[in-house]
Design goal:
It contains 18 helices and 24 strands. The chain is α/β, with parallel strands linked by helices. The strands form four sheets. An eight-stranded parallel beta sheet has the order 8-15-16-17-18-19-20-21. The radius of gyration is 24 Å and the shape is globular. It starts with a helix and ends with a strand.
Length: 546
């Protein structure tokens, strides 16, 4: 009886403790169906204490309470990027960035300038080029790159990370010639004479990439710190990292121990192509299960991308290329591996872009219970017969609105063709069929990591310059609230974390953002102009816009 009394006393005493932070004079979208809107939020320590009217929340203030006047701005839960590669993206911040540079001369100029500014770097490395930015929509060649830099090897990944562009020096150093054989997943692209063109698709990139200088843990850690700053400035308070290793875990562990980890990390371990790929890291589930660093997922990759014709399609591509793409797994081995990883306690996610790859993933997931919340990542070209299967199987549709930016889909659209085009990035169709959407950037395999750009694309399917006027396949647009849910509470659901984060409700993690504009009230075409004013993570301000 005495123990019960003490417990009740402690609970009541805690309830009377003043808030540590109060956000007032706000328009708060909570993502909480029981209370969708509020005027103010009280934070106590690392958790949300209450959301409600200004006057009611003001009563929770104490002498030491930090009060933030939102000046009528929109407050939302912190953004959750449900599919990102933060470490590699952060490393790229110091490399050549060709994002948005869409002419060969402009690319050559930027590459040459970087090479001149970094004379001590043994390799010229970067990423960001787009498939539709070369003359005649062709793939780049070693000669194109030689014109910018030929005294050092150059290695430049496409914006999606699935194709690599190298110069003659790099091919020479790697001994890649007309006689080189490659039979793995991908392609060593050759010209009509059989000579390597300088383009390497998927796994063929390793023919040259194996020679890249190793990146030291110290450099990776420094880059990751920069990545965390960038994420905070964009309101990202949680990530689901779609590629993981023990080395990457060690970096996050150091940041966590030093009190520098300013977002929550769910790491998906990358699998090898074996029937039981999860046995090698089954120990990580118990070791990493905290609210800031967690291992509970594994990632499979069953195909490539549309632009390079490596995504697995049911019917041949429609741009004159007769291939149907490639599966990177033997289907039977993949199905057994999925079941083995699930049985080992892992949540399973699969990169599948083409309709054949997506169907294979759904077929494998049919052997799992709907409560497994298995995920398909990307889902760029889905067969209409498979749309309803997502809800039926309880499969999460994890998708990247930024990949459907109309300014970058020209080559993609021609490869898919008019008959399959209506089922491209089918967010609204999947939602209408009852599927749960989770949105993300796939950074650095994207033209932007900014969740606001992703929301803009999801709502408009229109480039930020306003073209095309009608939007690209506008029937697949989603409402603002759907897009916000896919970046907050539904993204949390996709990682079994909806009870801990993703909404503004008592007991939830105190992760919030204050935006410069109200996404619900401004013209949809202006969403991309919105900026993050303040980011709060774990109850503390980690970013404040000047």
């Amino acid at each position: 009886m005495r123990t019960l009394f003490l417990l009740v006393f402690c609970v009541l005493a805690a309830a009377q403790e003043p808030a540590t932070v109060i956000i007032r004079n706000a328009r708060v979208w909570t993502a909480n169906p029981g209370q969708p809107w509020a005027e103010a939020v009280a934070i106590r320590g690392e958790k949300i204490a209450a959301a409600g009217g200004d006057s009611a929340i003001a009563k929770l203030a104490g002498p030491a309470t930090k009060v933030i006047d939102a000046q009528g701005r929109l407050v939302t839960p912190g953004f959750i990027d449900a599919h990102i590669h933060l470490s590699s993206g952060a490393l790229g911040l110091s490399e050549i960035d060709l994002t948005g540079v869409c002419s060969l001369p402009a690319m050559q100029q930027r590459i040459a300038q970087w090479a001149a500014a970094n004379p001590d770097e043994p390799w010229v490395v970067g990423r960001g080029w787009e498939y539709n930015c070369f003359p005649g929509k062709r793939l780049p060649t070693r000669e194109d790159l030689d014109a910018a830099v030929k005294d050092r090897p150059a290695y430049l990944r496409a914006y999606d990370g699935h194709t690599t562009w190298v110069n003659s020096k790099a091919l020479q150093m790697a001994s890649v010639t007309k006689d080189t054989k490659f039979d793995g997943f991908g392609e060593l692209v050759r010209d009509s004479a059989g000579e390597p063109t300088g383009c390497l698709k998927e796994g063929a990139a390793a023919l040259v990439g194996r020679l890249l200088p190793a990146t030291t843990p110290e450099r990776r850690l420094a880059a990751l710190r920069q990545g965390l700053k960038l994420a905070a400035s964009l309101g990202i308070t949680s990530i689901q990292n779609a590629s993981g290793s023990r080395g990457e875990l060690a970096l996050y562990e150091k940041l966590l121990a030093a009190g520098e980890l300013t977002l929550r990390v769910d790491l998906a371990m990358s699998t090898s192509r074996t029937a039981d790929p999860c046995s090698g890291f089954a120990d990580l589930i118990a070791k990493y299960k905290g609210d800031r660093l967690r291992v509970a997922m594994v990632k499979f990759l069953v195909d490539g991308v549309i632009e390079s014709h490596t995504a697995a399609m049911i019917e041949p591509y429609s741009d004159g290329n007769s291939t149907t793409g490639q599966l990177s797994w033997d289907p039977d081995v993949y199905r057994r591996a999925v079941k083995a990883c699930h049985d080992a306690g892992f949540q399973v996610e699969t990169h599948a872009i083409g309709d054949r790859g997506i169907r294979l993933a759904l077929d494998a997931y049919s052997a799992l219970p709907a409560t497994a919340r298995a995920r398909v990542e990307h889902i760029e070209s889905v067969h209409p017969a498979d749309i309803a299967r997502f809800a039926k199987l309880g499969v999460i549709a994890s998708m990247m609105p930024i990949h459907a930016d109309p300014g970058s889909v020209d080559v993609w659209s021609r490869a898919v063709g008019s008959q399959r085009l209506p089922y491209s990035f089918a967010w609204r169709s999947l939602q209408n069929a009852g599927a749960r959407l989770a949105f993300s950037s796939d950074w650095p395999a994207s033209i932007s990591v900014d969740p606001i750009r992703g929301i803009h694309n999801a709502v408009n399917r229109q480039s930020i310059d306003g073209t095309p006027k009608g939007g690209w396949l506008p029937g697949e647009r989603v409402p603002v609230e759907t897009a916000l849910r896919a970046y907050t509470t539904d993204a949390a659901y996709a990682a079994f974390e909806e009870s801990a984060r993703g909404s503004i409700a008592p007991g939830q993690a105190a992760d919030l953002v204050i935006l410069s504009a109200d996404l619900f009230r401004i013209p949809a075409a202006d969403i991309h102009k919105t900026r993050v004013a303040t980011t709060i993570f774990n109850g503390a301000v980690v970013y404040q816009r000047d």
